[in-house]
From TrEMBL:
Residues 1-31 are annotated as: Disordered. This is Transmembrane channel-like protein. The chain crosses the membrane at residues 169-191, 266-284, 363-385, 405-426, 495-513, 533-552. The gene is TMC7. It is a multi-pass membrane protein. Residues 486-535 form the TMC domain. It comes from Leptonychotes weddellii. Pfam families: TMC.
């Protein structure tokens, strides 16, 4: 500031000296006008300021605030206002009310000197950002199971909450996949089949496919047993095999509308590629977001304690129930972090002998895990081979239970493997001496690998049977066309049976195990005092009534049996008397 400008200031008001950044300082005889000295950049205070400035710049860049560092604090703010400073970015600064008002006045003053086009652009940009913020706030209230998942987070922590959030993501992903398949494949077929639109099926010739490979004969029996419909419903055969649920229902025909021909085989292929690509991109996007969060949290272990204690509370919470949930969530996270730190300290204090012993034990336990996986895979392979070989027999030659058991044998083995192996993995992981977080991740990894590998083994076994031609030639179609006219339908039926059996098991466990156990072991209030009725007493009481009820039913059955016996004797006696009366009447008529 020059002398003339300084003298022009009103009396009693100090002139504001510009802030000199450490990079511009220099200890030269002529003042601070020479280039900066390097040793000033080595001071701890300068290093701290540089780190904080880098953090602030990166945070402002992410939040959309474009404030460039200048030589003075006021010029820094005013320069930012002339570029992209809006009302929301002003609120984000840690300034007092008077300073924010001054900045807003400066912004309104500068708006007057802008052209109408620039004013409209700035106003529309503010309105659009405000609309996006309101829309995001509204969409948070439309999330599926939002309150339930927040309740789970408050009671069991963010780890369990992330699991249920992932399940919600799978539900949405399956819904999107269904919409893609329905719009691109099912809807044109249904519109043409039921004559909703003016469209017809047209044959699309294929040069590389033999005619015999496109024929899919559906066996039509005359009079069949009733239990065959039950088997068809549970296994996907019979009347379900002819529906749009399976691949064999679709033909190589196209759908001809008024102005164009819809290539149905191409649509089937492209829709499959589309939902697989969408699933991959969506999963990768979620994984990258989680990876960023984990990378930030893993930079410093003790930083998480400060974040949770000093910045973990949400002061916008006004509901007492939500406050309790948030409080329990923070408490659970702190306990988990302390347990992780204790395990980490224990690992750091291990000796060489303990390290060798632990790694040897882990190697042995991993060999046991591999042996369990190999046994499960071999059992699935043998069950699939046995089921496919016995399915060639006619249904009439087998009884209902035997037929259903053979059809569901691969699904039963896969479900048992998926049910037993997680319990084995949970027992083994306790002896490997990992941290709690790594134990959960490793157990989930093993279980997911088990579930995916069982499906791969099932498909591999089916593929080996489909492509095996004993006395028949596979050169025509590339597979055993006589036994498997549509091998895609056969694979789909196996997936259908696996899904149905999993659904039956889940419903049975929920209704007959979890639901009774929840109500049996829950506390029952009585006259203002909470008396906990223990499970053994409840089980004994229920068994007593079950035994008494069974005895009553037995007595009723015995009484009904005796009554039926007496009625049969009465009927026999009446028939005998009627016969004798008829004989007497006949003799009298003969005498006359």
């Amino acid at each position: 500031m020059s002398e003339s400008s300084a003298s022009a200031l009103p009396p009693g008001r100090r002139s504001r000296q510009p802030f000199i950044h450490p990079e511009n300082l220099s200890l030269d005889s002529s003042g601070f006008s020479s280039p900066p000295v390097n040793f000033l950049q080595e001071l701890p205070s300068y290093q701290s300021i540089a780190r904080r400035r880098t953090t602030i710049l990166s945070r402002d860049k992410q939040s959309g605030t474009l404030l460039k560092p200048t030589d003075s604090y006021s010029s820094q703010l005013e320069g930012g206002i002339t570029e992209n400073l809006n009302s929301q970015s002003i609120r984000k600064y840690a300034l007092n009310i008077s300073e924010k008002r001054r900045l807003r006045n400066i912004q309104e003053t500068q708006m007057k000197y802008l052209s109408e086009w620039d004013q409209w652009k700035r106003y529309s940009s503010k309105s659009w950002k405000r609309f996006i913020g309101k829309a995001r706030e509204m969409t948070t209230h439309l999330e599926l199971w939002r309150e339930d998942i927040r309740s789970i987070e408050g009671k069991f922590g963010t780890g369990i909450q992330s699991y249920f959030s992932f399940l919600r993501f799978l539900v949405l992903l399956n819904l999107v996949i269904f919409l893609i398949i329905f719009m691109l494949v099912l809807l044109p077929v249904l519109l043409t089949k039921y004559n909703i639109t003016n469209s017809t099926f047209v044959l699309i010739p294929s040069k590389d496919t033999d005619v015999q490979c496109t024929v899919y004969p559906i066996s039509s029996s005359g009079l069949i047993y009733f239990y065959s419909y039950v088997i068809d419903l549970l296994s996907g055969t019979g009347f379900l095999e002819e529906t749009c649920l399976f691949y064999g229902h679709y033909t190589i025909d196209g759908v001809k509308f008024q102005n164009f021909t819809y290539d149905l085989p191409l649509a089937y292929l492209l829709s499959t590629i589309a939902y697989l690509a969408l699933s991959l991109l969506w999963i990768v996007k979620r994984s990258v977001e989680g990876f960023k969060i984990n990378l930030i949290r893993s930079e410093e272990h003790f930083q998480s304690y400060c974040n949770k204690i000093f910045a973990g509370w949400d002061f916008c919470i006004t509901n007492r129930g939500m406050a309790d949930l948030k409080h329990s969530s923070l408490r659970y996270e702190l306990r988990a972090d302390l347990e992780e730190e204790r395990i980490r300290q224990k690992i750091a204090e291990r000796t060489t002998e303990e390290t060798i012993r632990i790694y040897s034990l882990r190697l042995f336990l991993n060999c046991i895990v591999l042996a369990v996986l190999a046994a499960c895979f071999y059992a699935i392979y043998r069950a699939t081979i046995f089921s496919q070989e016995h399915m060639k027999k006619e249904i009439d030659k087998m009884v209902f239970g035997e037929n259903l058991l053979i059809l569901y044998l691969p699904s039963i083995v896969i479900t048992l493997a998926n049910f037993i192996t997680p319990m084995i993995f949970a027992k083994i992981i306790h002896y490997e001496d990992y941290s709690p977080g790594f134990e959960i991740r490793l157990t989930i990894l093993r279980c997911v690998f088990m579930r995916l590998a069982t499906i791969c083994v099932l498909v591999f076994t089916l593929g080996s049977k489909i492509t095996s031609c004993d006395n028949y030639s596979c050169e025509l179609c590339g597979y055993n066309q006589k036994l498997y006219p549509c091998w895609e339908t056969q694979v789909g039926q196996e997936m259908y049976k696996l899904m149905i059996f999993d659904l039956i098991i889940i419903l049975a466990v929920t209704l007959f195990v979890d639901f009774p156990r929840k109500h049996i072991s829950s506390p029952w209030p009585s006259n203002g005092t909470n008396s906990l009725v223990t499970s053994p007493f409840c089980c004994s009481l229920i068994m007593f009534y079950f035994i008494a009820l069974a005895g009553a039913h037995k007595r009723v059955v015995v009484q009904l049996r005796e009554q039926l016996s007496l009625e049969s004797h009465d009927k026999r006696y009446l028939i005998q008397k009627l016969t004798e009366a008829q004989k007497d009447m006949k003799n009298r008529l003969d005498r006359q």
